[in-house]
Amino acid sequence: MELLHETGAGELSIAEVAERSGVHQATIYRRWGSMTELINEVIMDQLKDTSPIPETGSLRGDVEAYAEQAARDLAGPYGRLFLRAAMVGGGADAYYLVERGAQLQTMLDRHADAPTLLELMELVLAPIYLHLLIFNTPFPPQDTKRLVDRLLKPAPA
Questions:
Q1: Structure confidence by residue, pLDDT tens digits, 72-131
Q2: In this structure, are residues 151 and 63 in contact, taking their beta carbons and an 8 Å threshold?
Q3: Positive or negative, the Cα torsion across 115, 118, 121, 127?
Q4: Longest dimension (CA), the chain
Q5: Is the separation of the CB atoms in 126 and 53 below 8 Å?
Q6: Of the chain's two ends, which shows fewer C-beta atoms within 10 Å, N or C?
Q7: Angle, alpha carbons 89-93-95 (nearest 5°)
Q8: pLDDT confidence of residue 69
Q9: Considering the entire predicted model, what is its pTM?
Q10: What is the spatial distance between Cα 34 and Cα 116, in angstroms, rounded to a whole number?
Q11: Residue 1 in contact with residue 44, Cβ under 8 Å?
């Protein structure tokens, strides 16, 4: 994580990781196969440690807790790194995004009448991420309740 933070995902090399960790490059290639695979695993480990999927007992509680944590994560020291890594790895190579999506789906599946994962991403997570990308400032965690309200508001009769 330190090297990713220092150099960025696009510039980081296996040679730099090997030098910093004190192992031979072949060891890293044998374990991960590529820089993309290594970055994916490092990011998933970081997310598991710092941003577990909440289980509050209610749909609103779970979504609010996750949204607030996502906003705090992006405001933290590795927020821009997570975004850059996703953009550099992108697509099917960014399996940590797929894994996180599966974890969020499991969270939604615990609740009857939950929105879809796509709705959660479009109405809650996308504004949080886009705020950082477009305005270059983190989304205020205290404002995430407004996004969740938009997601969970009752359908018009």
A1: 988 888 787 767 666 655 554 566 677 888 999 999 999 999 999 999 999 999 999 899
A2: yes
A3: negative
A4: 64
A5: no
A6: C
A7: 105
A8: 93
A9: 0.78
A10: 33
A11: no
**What's the pLDDT at 89?**
52
**Which residue from 42, 54, 127, 50 is spatially nearest to 86, judged by alpha carbons?**
42
- φ/ψ of 126, rounded to 5, equals -60, -45
Q: Residue 114, Cβ neighbours under 10 Å: how many?
A: 18
Separation of CA 73 from chain center: 8
Measured CA to CA, the distance from residue 134 to residue 115 in angstroms comes to 26
Q: Which pair of tokens denotes residue 118?
A: 């796509």
pLDDT at 118: 95
The C-alpha angle 74, 76, 114, rounded to 5 degrees, equals 40
Place of tokens 């995430």: 144
Closest CA to 44 of 84, 8, 83, 97: 97
Angle, helices 59-75 vs 79-89, to 10°: value is: 90
The CB-side HSE value for 31 (13 A sphere, CA atoms) comes to 15
